[in-house]
Design a protein that fits this description.
By secondary structure, the chain is of the alpha+beta class. It is built from 8 helices and 5 strands. The protein is 58% helix and 13% strand. The termini are far apart.
């Protein structure tokens, strides 16, 4: 019995010794790899957030300082991201209020002139456009003669510059062609560094809205166009009603 206990104890000691030897071999291998790759923490900074290094109270070891720096950087990045999301939320809220205000004003419009003035005022202020124009398509000679700044001939060959966006109801935001700028902004075309062009469509092609800016970055392809698209739909619906009403007068 005693002999069996001695044998079991010896076996347990041998297993423990074997485990220690394996652990020592692993440690030596890791130490060797770290010495050969002293910049491992610079190449893989994510390791700093999971490594645990015991240290006494007092001067912190460099690794701990790096861990703190990494965590501080993560916190700063998260704070910046949170601020960006809050800015986006505030912008979305402001645009929603503008869209609601436009809808109310369009419903209250008495005639086509009211619609035009409301649209230009809202879009110029909310989108900080330096230039804002509306061009409505018509084959009515009386309209073309009496309001040439507002109405353009629906068969004007210059409209081929807008064919694709009208066919697909696409909004142009950023760079526009020289032909498009000349047609919309006329004498101010050379001053336009960036533009947003909104097609007005309600069953048929009604016209175009042109917004221009002196700054290259004011309107860019990176801008979201959902707001412009929704505004265009509201304006098109209101224009369709008043254009038909005026046409019957």
């Amino acid at each position: 019995m005693n002999k069996a206990k001695i044998i079991n104890k010896k076996s347990t000691n041998e297993e423990s010794s074997t485990q220690q030897e394996r652990q020592l071999a692993t440690d030596l291998e890791l130490i060797s790899l770290l010495r050969e790759n002293v910049d491992i923490l610079e190449r893989h900074p994510e390791l700093l957030s999971v490594l645990e290094v015991p240290h006494e109270t007092g001067q912190a070891v460099s690794l701990i300082e790096r861990q703190v720096a990494v965590l501080r950087q993560k916190t700063q990045t998260q704070d910046e991201r949170l601020r960006e999301l809050m800015d986006v939320a505030r912008d979305n809220e402001r645009l929603a209020i503008s869209r609601h205000s436009l809808a109310i004003n369009l419903l209250a419009a008495h005639d086509l002139d009211d619609v035009i003035s409301t649209v230009l005022d809202v879009l110029s202020n909310e989108l900080s456009a330096d230039y804002a124009v509306i061009k409505l398509f018509s084959e009515d000679k009386q309209r073309l003669e009496h309001a040439p700044d507002l109405f353009v001939d629906a068969n004007d060959k210059a409209l081929t510059a807008f064919k694709t966006m009208l066919d697909h109801k696409n909004i142009v935001c950023g760079k526009s062609t020289d032909e498009q700028k000349t047609f919309l902004f006329e004498d101010n075309a050379d001053r336009i560094q960036s533009a947003a062009i909104i097609p007005l469509i309600a069953g048929a092609n009604l016209g175009l809205i042109g917004l221009g800016a002196d700054q290259v970055t004011r309107f860019s392809s990176a801008m979201g166009t959902d707001f412009l698209s929704q505004m265009g739909e509201l304006i098109s619906a209101s224009l369709a009603v008043h254009l038909e009403s005026n046409g019957n007068d």
